[in-house]
Structure formats: C-alpha cells, structure tokens
Amino acid sequence: MLLSRDGTPQFTSHTKEIVMKAVKHVLVTVALAAAGALSLGAHAQSQSPTGAQPGSSPGPAAAAAAEMTEGEVRKIDRENKKITLKHGAIKNLDMPPMTMVFTVSDSSLLDKVQTGDKVRFTAANESGKFTLTDLQPVK
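^ that's the sequence the OP posted. Answer follows.
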C-alpha cells in the first residue's frame, strides 16, 4: 500500500484486484447459504408436523389417537382453570416428558378427572399458553 502526499492510502491495481476477489467470494458464500436456508424452510413448510404431505390425512380415529398424550393428574386448580400433569412427550408441541401446569379451554374438562387419575389429552399453544383442548380419563 502506498500513501499519497496527504497521507491517504493509495492501493495498487493488484491490491484492488485481490480485495475484489475476496468480496466476490464472500458474496457468493452468503448467497449460497441464504439459498440453502430458503430451500430448507420451504421444504419444512410443505410438510405437516407428522411428516405427512399436505392434503393427505389419516382417518379421524388415527388422527385423534396420534394427537393424544398420556399423563397423570398431579393437581387440579378449578378456580383458575389449571391442571398439573406429569406427561409423556407431546409430539405436536415438540415437548419432552415433564411435569407442568396447563390451562384448560373449558373448565368442564376438570370435572372428568381427579388427582392421581391416568389421562389422555390434547394440548395446544394458544397465544403462548399451553392449553388442554381435550382431556379423557383412562379406564
């Protein structure tokens, strides 16, 4: 690099060529990474959480059974429409087994069960709250 009389850097044509090649390499790499990410995103959106192609649907009984998760009632809070469950993996929410509190969409769901009952349930993420939409005691 050369300096002009006023102290500003003066690049030779060779230096400019090297810098331009480096910039091109960076831009190509970024473009390829972005294209790959967009491709993966489009592929993920074209499949349902179960991996089925859009438009295909299992029978109603199979769909209901696939969505239900097994659990055990640990606590019921009827006043606040909440229930604490120790549950297995909730596939539609990509949630591992744990014990946690859920709100219920309909307080009458809580009348079907009592502490200690084994249950099957369906849960959804409604505006950031994990909510039970169906709750059935296991007999």
